[in-house]
Amino acid sequence: MRHALVRGVSPAMNRCELTHRVREAIDIKRAEGQHRAYVAALVDLGCRVHEIPADPNLPDSVFVEDTAVVVGDAAVITWPGAASRRPEIESVRAFLSDRLEVLRMEPPATLDGGDVLRVGRMLYVGASGRTNAEGIAQLRALVTPRGYGVVPVVVTGCLHLKSAVTEVADGVLLANRNYLDVDAFVGVEWIDVDPREPDAANGLQVGDEVLFPTAYPRTAERLRRLGTRVHAVDVSELAKAEGAVTCCSLIWDTAGS
Ligand code: GLY
């Protein structure tokens, strides 16, 4: 069974953190509608969706991916790089603790789940403005006994590693290689975003389909031409908060159907 944890759009989303984007007004009703459609797409793709209610005090909490990293039957609860986001972790921890073994990171480590790209048993971890060296070291100490490797990747010019690169098929990475140190990656195949769509590297692979923003049709066409099944979703209001399709869910598998 494939599970997806999501969290509703906060009515305070206009007070979100922004790092590389200019602030634009977010239409909360429209963002909520886009989020409902995103959730419906996850259901279409076979996920059992669990939803934590929206929190009016936590502007970025829809981006639930940043609060935890799932490795097998365990979840590492992160210590997010932005102080405003740290109160998001408690409700995620409480939800996951009934379902997965929960492991904790401790400050001064900081790490956002958006910086962790799992490819097989390897976790590529963005050394970004949100994830520090101590965060990468703590993650390594927690996941190494579970058979996962950790490789740091320098990220520049975008928020998270997964703003720059995501896996769209087993071992196949969609990327804007200008944003990251490609030499860190071993044994992967690359698909480049269309140069007119530099922020198009974030797709969410669910089974053999990829949830992908409607905002990037040229890159979507590249993916389709290479045989990827693209499930397009409009996340334009969520993108104004510097979020993308991977950030809005935390996905894990359990045995059985
Ligand atoms: N607004 C998303 C983030 O900065 O974490």
Q: TL;DR?
A:
With 257 residues, the chain is of the alpha/beta class. Helices cover 21% and strands 27% of the residues.
Which descriptors apply to this entry?
single chain; 257 residues; alpha/beta; L-arginine/glycine Amidinotransferase, Chain A; 3-stranded mixed beta sheet; 6 helices; globular; binds glycine
**CATH class assignment:** Alpha Beta
* β-strand number: 15
As a percent range, the share of strand residues is 25-35%
* Helicity range: 10-25%
Report the C-alpha radius of gyration, rounded. 17 Å
Number of helices: 6
Q: Report the mean per-residue pLDDT as an integer.
A: 97
In total, how many domains does the architecture comprise?
A: 1
> Which fold does the CATH topology refer to?
L-arginine/glycine Amidinotransferase, Chain A
How are helices and strands ordered from N to C? EHEEEHEEEHEHEEEEEHEHE
Largest sheet: 3 strands, mixed
Instruction: State the secondary-structure class.
Output: alpha/beta
List the ligand species. Answer: glycine
Which strand order spans the largest sheet, edge to edge or round the barrel?
A: 2-1-15
Broad shape = globular
- The CATH superfamily bears the name L-arginine/glycine Amidinotransferase, Chain A
Question: What would you say this structure looks like, in words?
Answer:
The chain has 6 helices and 15 strands. The chain has about 260 residues and is of the alpha/beta class. It has one domain (about 1-255): L-arginine/glycine Amidinotransferase, Chain A. The strands form 5 sheets. Strands 2-1-15 form a 3-stranded mixed sheet, sandwiched between helices. The chain has a 3-stranded mixed sheet with strand order 3-4-5, with helices on both faces. A 3-stranded mixed sheet has the order 6-7-8, with helices on one face. The longest helix has 17 residues, at about 30-45. The mean pLDDT is about 95. The structure holds glycine. Glycine (GLY) binds near residues 82 and 242.
